[in-house]
Amino acid sequence: MNADWFELNVLVIVNVTQISLASTVLIYLLRLPKKTLEAKLFTGQYLTVSLFYVSFAIENLVVYPPFKGLMYVLSNIILSTGLLFFVGFAYQCGGNPYRRESQVVVLIVASMLGFSFFLPDIAVNRIPFPHLLGIFWVIGVYGRKARRVERELGIPTPTSKMLRAFQKWASIIFLIWVAVVYLPPVISLGLSKFMPRFFIIPPLELIQLTYGAIVFLNYTPQRTSFQAKVVGLVLCPLLIILAVTPILLHQLIADLPNYNSVNHRLLVAFLILIPFTTLLVIVGLPRFLRSNLLSPLNQILDGVRQVDAGNLAVQIPVTVRDEIGDLAQNFNQMTQSLRQSKEELTQYAETLETKVAERTQELKQSLDNLKAAQNQLIQKEKMASLGELTAGIAHEIQNPLNFVNNFAEVSAELAEELAQSVSAGDISAATALSADLRENMGYIAENGQRASSIVRSMLEHSRSSTGERRPTDLNELADEYLRLTYHGLRRSGQDADFQVQLCTQFEEGLKPVMVAPQDIGRVLLNLYNNAFYAVQQRQRQMQKTVVTGAGEEAEAPYQPTVWVSTWQVNGSVELSIRDNGVGIPEAIRDKIFQPFFTTKPTGEGTGLGLSLSYDIITKGHGGEMVLESQEGERTELVISLPYI
Asked: Domain span at residue 484?
């Protein structure tokens, strides 16, 4: 060979290992589909690294000084371009919250690199310093972004872990440049540059190439392959060994008399061995992984998908006798157990369905019995209300009947006197008696109509409500039921001497409201009864206190009073029933409208009055019923009925 223009040396061997690894990673990155901006910047960096190793290999191979200097400048230009990609990727990785800062930093780094080319002694001590500064800044950028993500979410996240991993990658590159900066002082002091140049920088460069690629493949959103990471992990140490071995052998053969010949053959052998080993790992290892690892794993993964789809009969062929084979065998056992469990669950479900049907029938029967009991209680409540109302009606109807009886007796006497006057021929007396008789007949007719009206009201109340609504004067309805309830209470025989002051304040000109009068009458009857019961209980408490002589409060006079008022507001009519009775304790106010809840002693109430009233107002008429009470002082119920 002609040795005038090139020279084989150990640095060329090192460069070949770096080219092999960098180009392998680059080819894989270029094959990734649908690259994001991050992936493009990362791929661009590995492209410039690969070109740098190629240009640096040519520089170490060629001995022609002008061409060697040109290649050195070209290498530094490529390396500087790679630094710009490196900085840009650092800001873009995991999102870029510092857009303006990233533009300024890239511009500053580019200016520093460009300025370094115009300084003297560029080959000795100028070009590494912009790289050191840029990489040191990138380490800080990764740290800031990781802390920012962790501070926002409060815990380490996959993004923060990725940023921390890339920070370690940048730290390895920083160590490489520290070693590069160490070389000029070593040379200037006449010391050996062998150690950092051959045993530190090349292994670190190969390690950072592999580490950076694996970190990127672990976190990139693009679909990557597990075998690519395994190939990188295997290829990296092999290339480190192939890069360092010629250097060690070079030291061993340095004293041989035929050193040049042996060294030449050694370097040629490694130039052939390195690409062959790289090709063998790239081609052979994936095949081995596919047949012994990935293919069995894919079969297991396909089985998992079938199980997820509901096919529990799937069985995976056990093709290898290792951990993967054990996994496949355990998967088959798992599917068999799942099939058995499914069959047992199916049988249990059928049995459970029968039991549920039987239990449902029992619950239905219990519910029917409960409904029947509830209907009986409701009927009892209605009959009790009807009895109280009937007593009031009986009292009311007695007055017109008394009038009818009295005037009938008087009319009979007048008729007899009229007959005598006519027989005697006393025309003037007969005329006067006739006028008195007509007047009595008028009174009898008037009181008869009054009694008829009361009977008709009683019949309407006793009938089941049809729910038919008609315009109703709420003032008249409230006043009528107030009087009937009060007289019914006094005529019930419980407390004939009980006296309540009734205060009414009805708004004049109140428009009729569309309601079912029978239903609203039942509501009023329940509320009036509760009000009278409350004031009656308080009066009894006051009387008991007076008897026992319990202080000044006992001496205060108490007048049982019930207030009823109506008013119109915002398209609705409101009716208030207020008493100064015992009030309702705060602890039970939320339960007051619940069915079967009562504050009365056992046997005195069913607990359905307020519940039925609440349902009639809210569900039957779309209104509202609001309770306000102060224990020991008062209770007020406000009914609001909308105009329809």
From this structure: 469-547+557-644
Helix-helix angle 128-153:99-116, to 10 degrees:
170
- The Cα 217–Cα 228 span in angstroms is 9
Give the CATH number for residue 577.
Answer: 3.30.565.10
Q: Exposed, middle or buried by CB within 10 Å (0-12, 13-18, 19+), for 401?
A: middle
| Residue 361 three-state SS | helix
State the CATH number of the domain containing residue 16: 1.20.1070
Q: Which residue has the tokens 């709420």?
A: 474
Residues 6+ apart with CB under 8 A from 205: 18, 176
Contacts made by residues 329-332, CB under 8 angstroms, sequence distance 24+: 331/300, 331/303, 331/304
Q: Which residue in the block uniquely carries the two structure tokens 């006051």? A: 542
CA 523/CA 582 separation, integer angstroms: 21
The token duo for 137 is: 């800044």
Mean pLDDT of 177-196: 63
pLDDT by residue (tens digit) across 31-55?
888 888 989 999 999 999 999 999 8
Grade residue 123 by pLDDT with cuts at 50, 70 and 90.
very low
**Distance from CA of residue 165 to its chain's centroid?**
33
* Total count of domains within the chain: 2
